[in-house]
Design brief:
By secondary structure, this protein is α/β, with parallel strands linked by helices. It is built from 25 helices and 7 strands. The strands form 2 sheets. Strands 2-1-3-4-5 form a 5-stranded mixed sheet. A two-stranded antiparallel sheet has the order 6-7. A hairpin with a 2-residue loop joins β6 and β7. The longest helix has 31 residues.
Length: 656
């Protein structure tokens, strides 16, 4: 008799079968954080803690049932590597050595040791982090080899010190610090011996500069080296004076004043500062006795003032410069008779340098600046543009607009001469036969309106429309369907209305006219040199504008109404007026490009004249550039000094 198996046993049996041969069941994720949340984490310590917890939970668990958690574990590892590499890159940027473009070897070695000892993730995944540091270590190692090779070949002691200092900075090793100190001690000994022997030459100066650069933190040593520095500069200065090379002596002093530690050097020169300044004053006082040496005397007086200013030595009273200023005043009077306005101004500025309160000087400068400014600022006038259209003559409009544009955009580079004023000059010239008055205008803008018209056109069309014109009453289809029902069925349904109102539609045709206007404006113009008639800049410009709109017939049909519509287009006059303004603006913009920055153009001419040894041309253009800069309220101190010095030099002795 067969054995009877209970239902609970059967259930257990089938459960075993499903466990052995069926698909494994998927477990709930151990880590609740999503992929996006893991990727958004930016704290390495937080990621390492999360990894440790997840790795512990996955210990001994099959990957097929916890595939999602194992994937998240890999993602955490990748995020840790990404953040660590980013952190290292930031550290590298901060620690990279200026001038060497590498990282200190001692830092890299310590970082490698730390990274290899602390591997928060499996070694194969952590290797890219270590490789990043190793690559920098290789780069630094090659740089060290290059520096060591340079040091082996270097013969100059001061360069050896610098190379040893660089090697100490790049390696961080004490052995290079000791090597640097040995070489430096030798340099210090050389400098001290040279100082005792009075050998204040350029070689000693080079050694002093190296010592100051490398041991600038040693206050006592720095003070000692600055003292040697001062003696070297003083010796070079007086040696040049003894050789009769005062200009070179002054250049040595200027080079010293440019040094960053000049205030300290200057203090060491206190005992000789007065003597250095007096030497130039003596040269100037002697040379001023000969009027033919005015240019040289002025230069030496200026250098004497420069020495006193740099070394903070008190200036002599203004009366001490009377012989110089008297000769400069006499010279400017002579130049004024020759019409050399720019040179006169240069001499007046020279006097102002030494005797700013000299009687009559301020008035003379103001008058001379006005005279130079009058020649520096170009005078421009526009003539009425010619036009073939008598009823629409836009010539006067164009020239007026151009004039206004120039006045607004280059008010200091050119001076606008009104057309009426220029016309009066022309009439006077025709009557007298003289052309001198034409100098009242430097440039002319003239031109012709070639075309100014508006073309109009219309295109008629029909627009078909199906529109609702009202409503009508018709039998209700629902009522008809209700009637067709049996009486029993009709009792079950409410009776619909017998009729309904529906919209009524009609096809209509509406006349539509497309209106089109095209304005055309064409002008040729030229910028002309008034005195010679030479065309400097010819050009032409053509612009057009198009306007379109529709007009339509009115329609009234039943309840539907379309009102009559007129096209809304500007008038021909409005179109041409707008085009005239646009043309004038475009012409004005092109002229501005030609006329702006006259001060810079004068400076360029001055520089060109200097290279060609055209001293007079240089002075004339410097003065004009200065006047326009003053009008524009731009910094001009350096330009005043150049004009002053070059003007006196040019007109008082032959330049070397």
């Amino acid at each position: 008799m067969p054995t009877k198996i209970s239902s609970s046993c059967l259930a257990f049996f089938f459960l075993l079968l499903s466990g052995c041969g069926g698909a494994p069941t998927k477990s709930e994720p151990l880590l609740s954080s999503s992929t996006a949340q893991i990727q958004s984490l930016q704290n390495i310590d937080e990621l390492i803690a999360m990894r440790g917890q997840l790795a512990g939970q996955l210990q001994g668990k099959p990957s097929e049932r916890y595939a999602e958690d194992y994937a998240k574990l890999a993602l955490i590892d990748a995020q840790i590597v990404k953040l660590k590499k980013s952190e290292l890159s930031s550290d590298f940027a901060a620690k990279r050595l200026d001038g060497e473009a590498v990282l200190p070897l001692s830092y890299l070695e310590a970082e490698l040791t730390r990274l290899k000892a602390q591997t928060p993730i499996p070694a194969d995944k952590w290797q890219p982090v270590i490789s990043l540091v190793e690559a920098e270590a290789i780069k630094t190692g090659r740089h060290i080899e290059q520096l060591e090779a340079l040091l082996r070949d270097e013969k100059e002691p001061q360069q050896q010190v610098l190379l040893a200092s660089r090697l100490h900075k790049v390696t961080g090793y004490d052995e290079w610090q000791q090597k640097k100190q040995q070489l430096l001690d030798s340099l210090i000994a050389d400098v001290r011996f040279a100082s005792e022997q009075g050998r204040f030459d350029s070689n000693t100066l080079a050694k002093v500069e190296i010592i100051k650069r490398v041991r600038g933190d040693d206050a006592a040593l720095l003070d000692e080296m600055i003292g040697v520095d001062a003696k070297i500069y003083a010796k070079q200065f007086f040696d040049k004076l003894a050789e009769g090379e005062a200009d070179q002596a002054y250049e040595i002093l200027q080079g010293m004043a440019a040094q960053p530690d000049f205030p300290l050097i200057k203090d060491k020169l206190a005992a000789t500062s007065q003597k250095m300044a007096d030497y130039f004053s003596a040269l100037a006082d002697e040379s001023i006795k000969d009027k033919s040496k005015l240019g040289q005397s002025y230069r030496w007086y200026s250098q004497a003032r420069g020495v006193r200013s740099m070394l903070e030595v008190s200036l002599p009273p203004a009366s001490a410069y009377e012989p110089l200023c008297a000769q400069l005043w006499e010279k400017q009077l002579s130049l004024a008779k020759q019409g050399e306005s720019e040179a006169v101004l240069a001499h007046l500025y020279a006097i102002q340098e030494f005797q700013p309160s000299r009687p009559g000087l301020r008035k003379a400068i103001v008058e001379q600046e006005a005279a130079v400014r009058d020649t520096a600022v170009l005078r421009l006038s526009t003539t009425d543009f010619q036009s073939p259209y008598k009823d629409q003559d836009y010539g006067d409009v164009i020239s007026s607009f151009i004039t206004q544009y120039l006045f607004e955009h280059v008010p200091y580079d050119v001076r606008i001469v009104e057309r009426e004023q220029y016309a009066a000059i022309l009439r006077e010239r025709d009557i007298s036969g003289e052309t001198s008055n034409l100098s009242s205008v430097n440039l002319l803008v003239s031109g012709s309106v070639l075309e100014s018209k508006v073309d109009s056109s219309e295109a008629n069309n029909k627009k078909m429309m199906r529109v609702e014109v009202g409503s009508e009453t018709i039998p209700n289809p629902s009522y008809i369907s209700w009637l067709e029902m049996s009486s029993r069925e009709r009792k079950k349904v409410d009776k619909p209305s017998e009729t309904i109102d529906v919209s009524k539609y009609e096809n209509i045709s509406v006349g539509v006219t497309r209106h089109r206007k095209v304005g055309i404006f064409s002008v040729s113009y030229r910028l002309v040199e008034a005195a010679s008639g030479k065309v400097i800049f010819p050009d032409s410009i053509t612009i057009n504008s198009e306007y379109q709109d529709d007009s339509s017939e009115g329609v009234e049909m039943g309840e539907f109404v379309i009102p009559f519509k007129l096209a809304d287009l500007p008038s021909d006059v409005e179109i041409l007026d707008a085009l005239a303004r646009q043309v004038a603006g475009d012409i004005g913009a092109k002229l501005v490009e030609r006329l702006k920055d006259q001060d810079l153009k004068y400076l360029a001419l001055a520089d060109a004249a200097e290279t060609q040894n055209d001293c007079a041309g240089e002075v004339q253009n410097l003065a004009k550039a200065l006047m326009i800069k003053r009008l524009k309220e731009r910094e001009s101190t350096v330009l005043v000094e150049r004009l002053r010095d070059r003007g006196v030099a040019c007109y008082n002795y032959a330049l070397h």
